[in-house]
Amino acid sequence: MIEHPVRVYKSDENLAREDQLAWKIAQVAVDPVEVSAEVTDMIINRVIDNASVAAASLTRRPVVSARSQALSHPRSTGGAGANVFGEDAATRVSPEWAAWANGVAVRELDYHDTFLAAEYSHPGDNIPAIVAVAQHVGAERGLTGRDLVRGIATGYEIQVDLVKAISLHAHKIDHVAHLGPSAAAGIGTLLGLPAETIFQAVGQALHTTTATRQSRKGEISSWKAHAPAFAGKMAVEAVDRAMRGETSPTPIYEGEDGVIAWLLDGPTAAYTVPLPAAGEAKRAILDTYTKEHSAEYQAQAWIDLARKLHAEHPEATDPAHVESVVIHTSHHTHYVIGSGANDPQKYDPQASRETLDHSIPYIFTVALQDGSWHHVDSYAPERAQRADTVALWHKTSTVEDAEWTRRYHSLDIAEKAFGGRVVITLTDGSTIVDEIAVADAHPLGARPFGRAEYVAKFRALASDVLEPAEIERFLALAERLPELTADEIGQLTIVAKPGLLAATPLPTGLF
């Protein structure tokens, strides 16, 4: 990896194009280096993972809404159009709208992969936009599964590298500001576009996807699922404009009035962004990890610890026996999904699913009482409003622990941690103390996810919405990803059981 210094330049300093971060990202995207077998296998896993959580969300309101918008924009000119999850594979829409609908379906349940460093991210959000473009122009451009794999590898690489170096949330900018550039770069690799075109697309994608973090604060709305899908849609449109010869604000990162100067660390900012050297394999996807549970990633390990404590200490599940539950954890967990956020909504039994998904006091309480976690049942209003749950939930708080904060930010994968220590004080004065560093499904966890676990997750989440034959068809296709023809890429979707989607009324809007 090459460590690239990035800072703000005054306009009269005339920063050369080849020294701009967007250009260096474009150089990574055009590098013809092959994707390793290990990375290819993980890309297949994440394509399956995305389909799993998309299947489970097909009838949820935000997904139905996004799908209805996409279906109002049928196949555009220039290609065959792209698939929409749930619909018959012959139904094609304009690729930017497929990226939108499928992106919302993937993100709705907060249940797919993650990478956390200086910033946080869900790099699987790159996949819907890249696949949509591959489906639209695959036959025309002679694309194969190998091209799709290369595009996805680039998307993951760029997003992960940006996340390692540049914090957005510190300035209340939503994490999808790293997704727009990464998806644009991934599409550039897929299509074999020249560096100049990718450079312009990256700049446009960044410029149009910077937004505030209010979508993940207080009363969290359905926009949480839409935000990354919007970034993917903007990336597709940015590539289209750049291919037509249109340019972007330059330098987009380093300019005197650019993103760093006014949205991030300011005019005196300095970052170091790691990017692969020419000829160096893109391996960033191997640093990422998926979710066993449908919840914010920092909650994954806590669900696993709560399940363990449920079995070992049943007395801790009854609020009548508990004085307090204090979770000692990282700065990020405390201030984003813990009591340090000072969001009363995180303790509100009437809160939205999206809000409860970002409340570690709620999540830990329910997992502790139930000894399990379910992507629907654990968030049901009747579950959230249960009297004994509310009582125990309101006795649960978080505090920042310096050591867990250090481990959270460690660049050493072996010690990087997303958990902490819990102290449960009982009414008799005794305490229960336990800790966990990483989730069970993490590569260093008790039960790391491999292909078998990804496939099992897909089967479990798809069983109610896809026919058995459709489950097998998709899995067989996905596991052959690098070998797919352009026509087969056009079948890389999931088709709902007959009548399932028709039973859900489509909302109406402008289109």
UniProtKB/TrEMBL annotation:
<comment type="similarity">
    <text>Belongs to the PrpD family.</text>
</comment>
<dbReference type="Pfam" id="PF03972">
    <property type="entry name" value="MmgE_PrpD_N"/>
</dbReference>
<dbReference type="GO" id="GO:0047547">
    <property type="term" value="F:2-methylcitrate dehydratase activity"/>
</dbReference>
<keyword id="KW-0456">Lyase</keyword>
<comment type="subunit">
    <text>Monomer.</text>
</comment>
<dbReference type="InterPro" id="IPR042188">
    <property type="entry name" value="MmgE/PrpD_sf_2"/>
</dbReference>
<feature type="domain" description="MmgE/PrpD N-terminal">
    <location>
        <begin position="20"/>
        <end position="269"/>
    </location>
</feature>
<protein>
    <recommendedName>
        <fullName>2-methylcitrate dehydratase</fullName>
        <ecNumber>4.2.1.79</ecNumber>
    </recommendedName>
</protein>
<dbReference type="InterPro" id="IPR042183">
    <property type="entry name" value="MmgE/PrpD_sf_1"/>
</dbReference>
<dbReference type="Pfam" id="PF19305">
    <property type="entry name" value="MmgE_PrpD_C"/>
</dbReference>
<feature type="domain" description="MmgE/PrpD C-terminal">
    <location>
        <begin position="293"/>
        <end position="480"/>
    </location>
</feature>
<dbReference type="InterPro" id="IPR045337">
    <property type="entry name" value="MmgE_PrpD_C"/>
</dbReference>
<dbReference type="InterPro" id="IPR005656">
    <property type="entry name" value="MmgE_PrpD"/>
</dbReference>
<dbReference type="InterPro" id="IPR045336">
    <property type="entry name" value="MmgE_PrpD_N"/>
</dbReference>
<dbReference type="InterPro" id="IPR036148">
    <property type="entry name" value="MmgE/PrpD_sf"/>
</dbReference>
